[in-house]
Amino acid sequence: MDFNWTPEQEAYRMEVRKWLEANQPPPLAQIDEENSGDDAAWARLKAWHKKLYDAGWAGLTWPKEYGGRGATFIEQVIFQQELGRLGLPMGCNVLGVIMNGPALMQWGTEEQKKRYLQPILAGDEIWCEGMSEPGAGSDLASIQCRAELKGDYFVVNGQKVWTTIAHRSHFCQLFVRTDPDAPKHKGMSALIVDMKSPGVTVRPLKQITGDSEFNEIFFEDVKVPKENLLGPLNQGWQVLVATLMHERFGIGETIGGTEQTLHALVELARRTRINGAPAIEEDDIRQQLAQFAIEVAAKKYNGLRSLSRRLKGLMPGSEASISKLVSTDLGQRMVKFTTRLLGEYAMLESHTPFAPRGDWMKRILQSESMTIAGGTSMVQRNMIGERILGLPKG
């Protein structure tokens, strides 16, 4: 495989870089794409999403018939790398673009595609995923939120938890139990639920970072039209697995997240002084930075396997679990390494006196949640062992 960019791809990168540098609003560098606790920040994030959409940068790989550019995954990766280089977010509807939209394209009816895809891409309608429950976190096959088909409606009762950005969402891709007597991997269905429906209650959860992008959702006799069934009845497990693969590809693909963190650590080591000398001159620090660089490179090249699969027109496979597992584990170790460089200063909140640039404390705390999002690290290891290595189930 030739890992070099072609002249055409380099020209495209320069086009992307030029547009982003000319159009980025300065405050966006400080906005986390999932930090929806502040209304003003959310409004700025929506404005940025709209700007990306109007310029044709949202949903690059989406087919043109659904409002995308029909770009290649190579072009998407280059765009993501340039976003990361400038510290810019993808927009306000990340889950909608990387998960719900692709799931609708794969499983939705023509009517559903025409109704929902364009508003998702434009950021006019925000989407969330109704998966985890209090008794079914990593084991999603054990969900108990139930939907009974009564005439022209499903009637939904139950609860979901850890639902990202539900309090901002217009719709939820909800996974429910429609046949309680079937084995747990069967008898499940996916529904499109209007979050303004009577009986839907959203309660934000305060996190250790102080943010509240995660939520509980309660459903009490919620009526969902029968035509809002996404995919075949009682075969929602297939829809769920496909949706998660899109998410893991989105989380773990080689789009520069850990590379940007590595660059930030190197710059931090150059600026920080330990015992009167730059931290980067200490042998153990240089060795750890070198180890991080090796792992970042390994993750990047392994991630190209997922990219190659997409370039062949295939859906994301189990190899996405490798990228997701490595990305979250490596990212967590990297941000925690700042405590070696900064000592107690790494634990200062960004708005306090003497706090270092980079808001490392929040990044350290957030890194814990990423080992759970999209399936816990333990689940990813099981999938890698069983589906890639062919090991027996434990």
**Number of DSSP helical runs:** 12
CATH architectural arrangement of the largest domain: Up-down Bundle
Strand neighbour order, sheet with most strands: 1-4-5-8
Total strands: the figure is: 10
The low-pLDDT segments are 31-37, 251-256
N-end to C-end Cα span = 36 Å
Class derived from helix and strand content:
alpha+beta
Account of the protein in words:
With 394 residues, the chain is α+β, with helices and mostly antiparallel strands. The chain folds into three domains: 7-92, Acyl-CoA dehydrogenase/oxidase, N-terminal domain (Butyryl-Coa Dehydrogenase, subunit A, domain 1, Orthogonal Bundle); 127-235, Butyryl-CoA Dehydrogenase, subunit A, domain 2 (Beta Barrel), CATH 2.40.110.10; 253-388, Butyryl-CoA Dehydrogenase, subunit A, domain 3, CATH 1.20.140.10. It is built from twelve helices and ten strands. It has helices spanning 7-23, 39-54, 73-86, 94-107, 110-122, 236-252, 257-271, 283-311, 319-336, 338-342, 360-370, 377-388; strands spanning 127-130, 146-150, 153-160, 171-177, 188-194, 200-205, 214-225, 229-230, 273-274, 277-278. The chain has a four-stranded mixed β-sheet. A four-stranded antiparallel β-sheet has the order 2-3-7-6, with no helix packed on it. A hairpin with an 8-residue loop joins strand 6 and strand 7 (214-225). Helix 1 (7-23) crosses helix 3 (73-86) and helix 7 runs antiparallel to helix 8 (283-311). It is globular. It starts with 6 loop residues before the first helix and ends in a 6-residue tail after the last helix. Mean pLDDT is 88; it is low at 31-37 and 251-256.
